[in-house]
């Protein structure tokens, strides 16, 4: 099987038929954990057999992912894990820079014991994943920290947007981050939580912006040519 061609990765023993939501979640998670890489073909028929579901159901899940820009569909060629361009990558960070400070302020102003506990529990999970060097879990949990903060902030539009944006960030990191997967720095999540616990939305927002700068800064967005330089290739 060609390396980039699909999905033995999704094929844990699946005993019952999957709903389209379950298929959606499994693919979403595989992308979040970097098991499915940008540009991977998602063949309907194979997915249908993997998930023991009809092709219509698979299509339903893929359509939802396509709506969120996580999957792309091409006439006659089928479905592929999205491959965000450099421009899209920059757009993702621009959008996150607008939304996430607002999430921080909103969350800092509405902290409760439950929210503190939820954030603490998440940080512990991240710490444990790092301790045992579970790379998949580290990547997934890093992204989920941001989704959790948005969910706790309690604005459903923020939550929905951020879920999309953090998955796209995952794809962007995979595409443009040279050899090392620099996901979120753990200490920055911790510092954000400290500020949130103090009800200090401004500091949390400031650290969040620095944090996003660090993630974007770890990407190699400048040296990647969008299109092959044909003159360079043929005329020199
Ligand atoms: Zn982060």
Automatic annotation (TrEMBL):
<dbReference type="GO" id="GO:0003677">
    <property type="term" value="F:DNA binding"/>
</dbReference>
<dbReference type="Pfam" id="PF00392">
    <property type="entry name" value="GntR"/>
</dbReference>
<feature type="domain" description="HTH gntR-type">
    <location>
        <begin position="17"/>
        <end position="84"/>
    </location>
</feature>
<keyword id="KW-0238">DNA-binding</keyword>
<keyword id="KW-0805">Transcription regulation</keyword>
<dbReference type="InterPro" id="IPR000524">
    <property type="entry name" value="Tscrpt_reg_HTH_GntR"/>
</dbReference>
<keyword id="KW-0804">Transcription</keyword>
<dbReference type="GO" id="GO:0003700">
    <property type="term" value="F:DNA-binding transcription factor activity"/>
</dbReference>
<dbReference type="InterPro" id="IPR036388">
    <property type="entry name" value="WH-like_DNA-bd_sf"/>
</dbReference>
<dbReference type="Pfam" id="PF07729">
    <property type="entry name" value="FCD"/>
</dbReference>
<protein>
    <submittedName>
        <fullName>GntR family transcriptional regulator</fullName>
    </submittedName>
</protein>
<dbReference type="InterPro" id="IPR008920">
    <property type="entry name" value="TF_FadR/GntR_C"/>
</dbReference>
<dbReference type="InterPro" id="IPR036390">
    <property type="entry name" value="WH_DNA-bd_sf"/>
</dbReference>
<dbReference type="InterPro" id="IPR011711">
    <property type="entry name" value="GntR_C"/>
</dbReference>
């Amino acid at each position: 099987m060609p390396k980039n061609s699909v999905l033995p990765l999704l094929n844990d023993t699946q005993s019952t038929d999957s709903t389209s939501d379950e298929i959606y979640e499994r693919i979403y998670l595989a992308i979040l954990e970097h098991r499915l890489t940008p540009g991977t073909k998602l063949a309907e028929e194979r997915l249908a057999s993997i998930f023991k579901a009809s092709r219509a159901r698979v299509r339903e899940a893929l359509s939802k992912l396509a709506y969120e820009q996580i999957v792309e569909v091409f006439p006659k060629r089928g479905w592929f894990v999205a491959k965000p361009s450099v421009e899209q990558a920059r757009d993702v960070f621009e959008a996150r820079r607008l939304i996430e400070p607002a999430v921080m302020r909103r969350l800092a102003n509405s902290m409760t014991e439950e929210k503190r506990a939820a954030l603490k529990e998440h940080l512990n999970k991240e710490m444990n994943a790092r301790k045992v060097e579970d790379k998949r879990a580290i990547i997934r949990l890093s992204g989920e920290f941001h989704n959790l903060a948005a969910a706790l902030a309690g604005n459903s539009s923020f939550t929905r947007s951020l879920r999309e944006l953090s998955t796209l960030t995952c794809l962007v990191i995979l595409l443009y981050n040279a050899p090392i997967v620099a996901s979120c720095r753990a200490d920055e999540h911790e510092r954000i939580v400290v500020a949130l616990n103090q009800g200090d939305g401004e500091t949390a927002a400031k650290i969040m912006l620095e944090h996003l700068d660090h993630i974007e800064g770890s990407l190699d967005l400048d040296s990647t040519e969008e299109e092959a330089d044909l003159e360079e290739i043929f005329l020199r």
